[in-house]
Task: structure prediction
Amino acid sequence: MKKEILQSFIQKVWNEGDVNAIAGYIADTYTVMHDPGDPWDGMALDVAGFQHRVSSSRAPVPDQVFEIQELYENENSVCITWLWSGTHLGEIAGIPPSGKTLRMSGATVYYFQNDRITGHWQITDRLGVFQQLQRNRNPET
Result:
């Protein structure tokens, strides 16, 4: 059951950008337990805060897509591995839009209580994204 909830959450919220759907998936408090490089790392967010996080994260790459590779469900958590891609159409870390496709991979453990997502613990290849941004900015390198 939790796997299906998470798949729907990833599709509607992160892939489609439907911030109004967030309240149907997350608990009153969502904690970003571990997500190095994410501006929300270590923060506890309410629904409005999570909506802001999604909108801000999607803004420079509005066509982003998370492609789930594997899902593993435990009693109160679901772990996914994923591939992410999207077109760099807005400024990221001071780097202007390049129009190029960015790619990264990662693994995320989502925690649940009463079929609501309460937070996550994540590792991603943000260094790889930064290297792609630098390459796109300086194509001769």
Q: What stands out?
A: The chain has one domain: 2-137. The mean pLDDT is 96. The domain at 2-137 is CATH 3.10.450.50 (Nuclear Transport Factor 2; Chain: A,).
